[in-house]
## 1
Amino acid sequence: MSKNSSQVIIICEDTQQEVFVRHFLKKAEGIGNHAVRVNKNPSGKGSGEQFVRKQLPDQLKAIRGRTAKAKTDLIVVIDADISTVSQIMQKLEATCSEQHINRREKHERVSFIIPKRNIETWIHYLDGHETNEESVYQKMQKESDCKSAADSLRRICSTKKTPDNFPDSLQTACLEYKRVTRDE
């Protein structure tokens, strides 16, 4: 996210993902809450994964219209669960195609942030614990307890070399982050 972005739109499954990404943006790019708009699945209202997939085509269309007037970033956060990150990316792109919306293009400021297995896996790893991307890790007692993990990810993504045991989905997330940080 460039500091020049006038708005960042986040589509996510839940509050934990929202808090993690907001804190990452605040620390990495100095983006405050006033510049962020969040569309998240209403608690207890069905599948978060399905909500994110359904929101993507409309939000992609909206930012394309807005980008002519102001730099806008779209961040899509969706857990991979038992799928692979590439399978989830394919599902997101297929959803756009089904709605007759062109898939994201390389030049677009759209990133797909896909934790494998879920965001708690990343938080657990980034807080210094051994993890694997198949196990289910406990949710945080308070969503804000993830801030140190978001800070760790910011530091790692800003370096050229990642740790040897860095989970693949986190490596992909750092690459996806670069889609919205480049200056145009």
## 2
Amino acid sequence: MSLAGFFHGIATGPRRRRVLLTPVGLLVFGGTLVIVIAGGLVTDRVLRLPALLPGVLGLAVGIPVLLAGAFLCGWCVIRFRKAHGTPVPMNPPTELIASGPYAWVRNPMVTGVLGALFGLGLVFHSIGIALIWTPAYVLIHWIELKWVEEPELARRFGPSYLEYKKRVPMFIPRLRRQRYKQ
């Protein structure tokens, strides 16, 4: 069984199992964020990297970027909750979400996390967080999305997901949006 098949079995399985596995997904997500932040700070120290935008400049640029990323993540969570699901792959909504930030990009949660981590790297003046560990984190997510999440969504939602995927970019919105209609 593929990883996409494994997650599909959970996502379409009994509600009780999905609800019980949701905290596991949250712990994995939270743990990866801790690894990125701690790894970045350790990398800075071990490699003796200079401060990234030292002083007030790092805070002045980093805080708005961090808040924008956090806002985007929060907006995504609200969209998932309204659809009676969570962003955790073990307990997703039963409908394809293609409105709100999902009308602009297929993975706004990853875009938001990227912004929040990059902003945090600026706030901590950390080259390790902003320019090493955050891009690596996004690359790993891209691989997971391509190999696991997108095949699972295609299996669960069929042609509607494939059409959505054709029209909506993965992470960065187009200047001119091709609106997806469900």
## 3
Amino acid sequence: MIVAINFDGACEPVNPGGVGTWGFIIRDLPGRSVPVYGVGIVEPLSVPMTNNVAEWVALGKALAFVDSNYRSVLKPASEHSLLISGDSKLVVEQLSGRWACNAANLRPLLARCRELLTSIGCPWSATWVKRDFNTAADSLTQAAYVGATGKPFPVREKKK
């Protein structure tokens, strides 16, 4: 079995200091089960809210769900794997160990995600995807913001 995670986090309407929201989608590949969706606001942490914090929380929530609901079916590890995708290059590269995690406020979030991956116990890979390929998780994050604030999700001009 292959289990796929798409995750996203946001800090709006300002970064840093906005409202942190997260969303994830988990599905068995090749689509044998109905996708599972998770959304929410980032609970107050001892660190300032930023996009990077929200992205890490989103991944942590998704991994905790997999650990609670899929761990028993993902073992033995040799037959199963976990595919992680997100539009945060920082999270994907730090999780994979290709980039150092220099921000002290992100280290505990990275450590928690790695603990969850160890608990899940199967091979995994993390891939950065452009936001255009993460629209379903992004829309969940936006819906969480609207639900938490009652305001429309801020629209920003695309960078050229």
